[in-house]
Amino acid sequence: MAQANDSILVTPGTGATVATHLVAGKEHQVVCVADDSGHIQGSLPTYFYCSPPIAVGANKLLVDLFNATGSGKVMDIRGVWLVPKLDVAVTSAVAVRVDLYRTSAVGTGGTAASVDSATPDVGGGNFTKFDESNAAIPSQITARVIPTGGATISRWMFPSNYAPEESATSQGYIAQWQNLIPNFSFGQKIVVRENTGLLFKQGAVASVGSVSILIAFTLE
Q: Beta 126-129 vs 114-115: how paired, if at all?
């Protein structure tokens, strides 16, 4: 268990300086909370990757995300959302199953991601920053849409299903608000270390429509 490794002695009128805030005539200590990365809570540099809408297909490789050797970074996956394309009508829809896998090799072929593109639904998806002052994403961190090779599966993680049908009575609108890995529910984040990656792959049942995959992550 991580514990504090130091303390300060506070003696009125002497000792270390501690920040306070006056409330109702009394000074209250001001505390800055740090997370397990050592950053002040809410300040850890955070990034998005978002794919364009990808036409679904049985057993189709949808998106490969990889952290190659040399990045010098650990990726912590903070959230994953499946966003069905609901502005195009579809019929006879069955749910789309998307499985998440860990990979041991980068994907090849397909369409590589852009960085800080201004084009909506850019072909290979887009990496971007939460804060423009964040450091650039290392070039060893890559993503691609519909890889045709590589993306070697090392482990299956979990499935998810979403409804691709756009009508007001369908469940299609719910998926885009559901984080598949809410960090508050688990003891650890999904960690992507160097020379590992993630692969989103459709299940064996065919369906219709298109889906974007949105990933939020931090770098340490």
A: parallel
Q: Tens digits of per-residue pLDDT, 69-83?
A: 999 999 999 999 999
What type of residue sits at position 173?
A: Y
CB within 8 A of 32, min separation 6: which ones? Answer: 40, 41
pLDDT tens track for 157-201? 999 998 888 777 677 777 778 888 876 566 788 999 999 999 999
Whether pTM exceeds 0.85:
no
Rounded-to-integer distance, Cα 58 and Cα 6, Å: 55
Residue 188 burial by Cβ neighbours in a 10 Å radius (0-12, 13-18, 19+): exposed
d(CA 51, CA 147): 13
Three-state SS annotation for 132-172:
CCCCCCCCCEEEEECCCEECCEEEEEEEEEECCCCCCCCCH
- Contact between 175 and 60 under an 8 Å Cβ cutoff? The reply is no
